[in-house]
Specification:
Layout lengths: L1 E2 L9 H10 L6 E4 L2 E4 L5 H12 L1
Antiparallel strand pairs: 1-3, 2-3
Length: about 55
């Protein structure tokens, strides 16, 4: 994961929601301790493991 940028003071929830509105559709972000982090896209192997867990 990577941080969009370091913020001082930390990003607020309202600021994060505004940030998300400006990002392209399909990007997945989370706010961790006031820092926006981009989530990695799952791999096919991850999908396979998740399917095995759900079906067991």
């Amino acid at each position: 994961m990577r941080a969009a940028e370091t913020r001082d003071p930390p990003m607020s929830l309202d600021g994060f929601l505004t940030f998300l509105a400006e990002r392209p559709a399909g990007e997945r972000w989370e706010l961790a301790d006031g820092v926006p982090l981009m989530n990695a896209q799952p791999t096919r192997r991850h999908d396979w493991i998740q399917t095995n867990i759900v079906e067991s």
